[in-house]
Amino acid sequence: MRVDEVAAQTLAAIRAGGTHRSMRRFEGAQGPRMRVDGREVLVFAGSNYLDLAHHPEVVEAAVRAARDQGCAAGGSRLINGNLSLHEELEEDLAKFLGVEAALVFATGYMANVGVIPALTGAGDLVVSDALSHASIIDGCRLTRAEVRVVPHGDLEVLDQVLAKEARPGRRVLLAVDGVYSMDGDVAPVAALCEIAQRHGAMLLLDDAHGTGTLGARGRGTAELCGVPAEAIDVQLGTLGKSLGSFGAFVAGSRALRELLVNTARSFIFSCGLAPPQVAAARAALTVVEREPWRRERLQHNAERLRRGLDAQGVSTIPSTTQIVPVQIGDNDRTMTVCERLLERGFFAHGIRHPSVPVGTARLRITPMATHSEAEIDALVAAVAEELARSG
C-alpha cells in the first residue's frame, strides 16, 4: 500500500469521527489581538499568558543574541553546542525556582520523554494521572517499567496502588501535571508529596502551565500549594508559554542534572537551543520577577471570565487557573460555536478527541494578562449567545 493510500484511509476515518484538523493562519506579533485566517480578532487561545512573546526587552535580547552569537547552537550540547548562554539560563532558572540545578531541553515533550525513561526501567513502576499530558503518556511508553494510570485526582486509589506496588529496591515514579492543560485545575501537590514520600516514590511535577503564572513569586503550583521546592524531586517547565520564548527545562538536584546529561536521549541527541531563544527566555524571566502585576492581572482576568460565564449559566468547572474550559460535548457543535465566535472577532479554540476524552469536546479559553475587562466581558456575552444559538 502506498503512502497516499494510507493517508486517504486514515484521514477518511478521522473525518468520519468529526475530529479532522487543519492549521489556521496567524499574522502579526503574538498578543491579545492578531489576524487569524485573514480576520482581526481578540485571541483567547494559546499560552502566551503574560504577553511576553513580543515584549520589547525580550525581543531586544533575542535580536542582540542573534547578532552577537548567531541563530544556531551548532550542534548537541555534548559536542559543540553547550553555550555560556545555556548555562547562564539554567543558573537563572535554578535560582528562580529555589533548587540546585536545571537543564534546558528543546521542548517540553522532549523533556518528559527524556526524563521518565532516565529514572525508571525494567521492573520499576511509573504511576500517572488519567488526564496526564501526552508527553507524560509517551514518556511512560518509552520506559520498560510497569505503568499504572489512576483516575484523575483520586488520591485514595493512588495511595492504594503505591501501598501495593512499592517495595524496597524498586524505583517508583509518580508523574503528574501541575495544572491540567485542558481543564485548568491544579494538582493537590501537598498531598501528592506526602503520599510519594510515605511510599518512597519519586515525584515528577510537569508545571508547564504553572511556571510564571502561579504562586506569590511565579514559581508555580508547588509554591501556590505551599510546598517547598526541595520536596519535588523533578520539576518541569516550558520556556514557550509564560516566558514567551521556546524550549523547556527540568529542575532539581545537581545529581539529577548530571544523570540527564548522561542518559536522557532526547537531550543527548538534539541540538542545543538557539542563542536568540535562550536570551529571550532569560530576559522574560527577569520581567516575570520584576512585574508581578502580570500574573496577578492574568488570574484576575481568568476569575472575571469564570464569574461572567457562571452568571450566564455556563459552567467552567473544574478550572481555577488561566485555562478556562467550556465543555460542550458534541464535536460538530463545538466547532460551530468556535467558527461563529471567530466571525464575531473572538478566537477561542475548539478542542476535540484525542486532546480530550471522547464526548467532552470544549472551548478552551485562555485569557492573557493584557486583555482588558471590557474584552473579557465581550467574550462572555458572545460565548453565551453562541451556545444558546447552537442549541
| Amino-to-carboxy terminus distance | 43 Å
Mean pLDDT, as a whole number? 97
CATH architectural type of the largest domain: 3-Layer(aba) Sandwich
Class inferred from helices and paired strands:
alpha/beta
Beta content: 15-25%
Tell me the strand order in the biggest sheet.
4-10-9-8-7-5-6
Q: Largest sheet, described in full?
A: 7 strands, mixed
Give the topology string: H per helix, E per strand. HEEEHHEHEHEHEHEHEEHHHHEHEEEH
Number of helices: 14
Outline type: globular
Number of discrete domains = 2
Q: Give the radius of gyration.
A: 21 Å
Determine and state the CATH class of the largest domain.
Alpha Beta
How many extended strands? 14
List the helices and strands and how they pair.
Layout: H1 3-16, E1 26-27, E2 33-36, E3 39-43, H2 56-69, H3 84-97, E4 101-105, H4 108-119, E5 125-129, H5 134-142, E6 146-150, H6 155-165, E7 172-177, H7 189-198, E8 202-206, H8 221-224, E9 234-238, E10 248-252, H9 254-263, H10 265-268, H11 275-290, H12 293-311, E11 324-329, H13 331-343, E12 346-347, E13 349-351, E14 361-365, H14 373-389
Parallel strand pairs: 3-12, 5-6, 5-7, 7-8, 8-9
Antiparallel strand pairs: 1-2, 2-3, 4-10, 9-10, 11-14, 13-14
Helix pairs in contact: 2-11, 3-11, 4-5, 6-7, 12-14
